[in-house]
Design brief:
The protein has 2 domains: 6-193 and 357-411, 3-Layer(bba) Sandwich (FAD/NAD(P)-binding domain); 198-348, Helicase, Ruva Protein, domain 3 (Orthogonal Bundle), CATH 1.10.8.50. The chain is built from 11 helices and 19 strands. The protein has helices spanning 13-23, 59-63, 74-79, 82-91, 111-124, 177-184, 245-259, 276-289, 307-314, 328-339, 395-411; strands at residues 6-9, 29-32, 53-54, 96-99, 103-106, 128-130, 135-140, 146-150, 153-157, 159-162, 189-195, 199-201, 213-222, 227-237, 241-243, 265-269, 341-348, 356-361, 379-381. Helix 1 (13-23) runs parallel beside helix 5 (111-124) and helix 8 packs across helix 10. The chain is elongated and about 85 Å long.
């Protein structure tokens, strides 16, 4: 055996915290990262700003934000909570700010500063970091410990922490390697699928709205009989369909329906603050104001310019029709469209475009108090490789930080 007690594979959010926590106990720790730079996926989160956690105070309320096995995280959050995360980064000199929706960001607005803080933590703790060291395999040694195969030769360690991420954004290094390694060592892999992923739609008019962002809208998902989920916030139209925070949150439900062979409907309430009656009165005031114009030009105070033709088409109103000649029935159809603009979900974007991966190493095969495998002594898991996934709002990074902290603490020399 060489001088390293613990090897952490993966230099992302979970791996950096795990390596730093393990090393600061005095345990000889090695961090192996395939890329030249650490934390590449962190660097692109939150549009380069990095929503690193949430300020929600209750652990129960936080766990409710994980549709994928949230209860598994209870012990990890009890040991290293979101409030601990904020204090942790502040202690490293990274100030944070809390914004709308209780989302916590670095005050600098730079995701790279989060990466620098984590790298500083790991190095100052005494961890040796080896970038550009891709791992090609890991196996158990005959008696105890692990053999890690790398491009630069084998490494033998007593314990190993797999923090290699999932299979989303493969350009950042998360290429799904860890699933095959875990399966080979006897672990069950819950089939992976995209989570927090943009949705494709059947309607072609979304292309005319490409780049249009809507704020403060209510969006819900339905099948033929029931409402499946509802969100309020921001969404974005794209050339293939829709994206943005509310869509990403609902995408998990949509993906499950698509797997059943169904095509759920997206409903958009463009004016959720107004009841149908209040909206109708508002429209009548605008119609009076613009009574000499065509209907397309009478909605400029109510809607973004690009959205007006789409709404009129869905309301079955000719855009060139004179405003003063709009009938009561047509006005009612306009109100109904503004309160329920529909889109048909035809698919999700590929896993490579998902923010996180659902599925992974089965949680019932991992000790939630230590992150150690129940099957193989000395093997630990942290981060996205585990079958856990959360909503947008800093929850997935918090899961990475918490599971990384627990894995590092328990893999350390006792």
């Amino acid at each position: 055996m060489n001088s390293y007690k613990v090897a952490v594979i993966g230099g992302g959010a979970a791996g950096l915290v795990a390596a730093g926590r393990c090393a600061e106990t005095g345990t000889k720790t090695l961090l192996l990262e395939k890329n030249k730079y650490l934390g590449r996926k962190i660097g692109i989160t939150g549009k380069g700003r990095c929503n690193l956690t949430t300020s929600i105070a209750s652990i129960e309320d936080i766990i409710a934000q994980y549709p994928g096995n949230g209860r598994f995280l209870y012990s990890a959050f009890s040991q290293f909570s979101n409030l601990d995360t904020i204090d942790f980064f502040n202690s490293l000199g990274l100030k944070t700010v809390t914004e709308r929706g209780q989302r916590v960001f670095p005050a600098s607005d730079r995701a790279r500063d989060v990466v620098k803080a984590l790298e500083k933590y790991a190095k100052s703790s005494g961890c040796e970091i080896r970038p550009e060291s891709p791992v090609t395999g890991i196996s158990r040694l005959p008696v105890s410990g692990f053999k890690i195969t790398t491009a630069k030769g084998p490494i033998e360690v007593e314990k190993a922490i797999l923090a290699v991420g999932g299979a989303s954004y493969p350009g950042t290094g998360s290429t799904g390697d860890g699933y095959a390694w875990a399966r080979k060592m006897g672990h069950t892999i819950v089939p992976i699928r995209p989570a927090l992923v943009p949705l494709e739609t059947s309607e072609t008019w979304v292309r005319d709205l490409q780049g249009l962002s809507l704020r403060n809208v209510k969006v819900w998902l339905s099948d033929s009989d029931n409402i499946l989920g509802s969100e309020f916030g921001e969404m974005l139209f794209t050339h293939f369909g829709v994206s943005g925070p509310v869509i990403l949150t609902l995408s998990r439900i949509a993906a499950a329906e698509l797997e059943k062979g169904k095509q759920p409907l997206i409903h958009i309430d463009l004016k959720p603050a107004l009841s149908p009656e209040t909206l109708d009165r508002r429209i009548q005031r605008d119609f009076k104001k613009y009574q000499r114009k065509i209907i397309q030009n009478a909605l400029v105070d109510l809607l973004p310019q690009a959205l007006i033709p789409v709404v009129l088409e869905n309301a079955e109103i000719e855009r060139e029709k004179a405003t003063h000649s709009i009938t009561r029935e047509e006005r009612q159809s306009l109100v109904e469209t503004l309160k329920d603009l529909k889109l048909t979900v035809s698919g999700t974007r590929p896993l490579s475009e998902a923010i996180v991966t659902a599925g992974g190493v089965a949680t019932n095969e991992i000790n939630p108090r230590t992150m150690e495998s129940k099957i193989i002594s000395g093997l630990y898991f942290a981060g996205e490789i585990i079958d856990i996934d959360g909503n947008t709002g800093g929850f997935n990074l918090q899961a990475a930080f918490s599971t990384g902290y627990v894995a590092g603490a328990n893999a350390a020399d006792k």
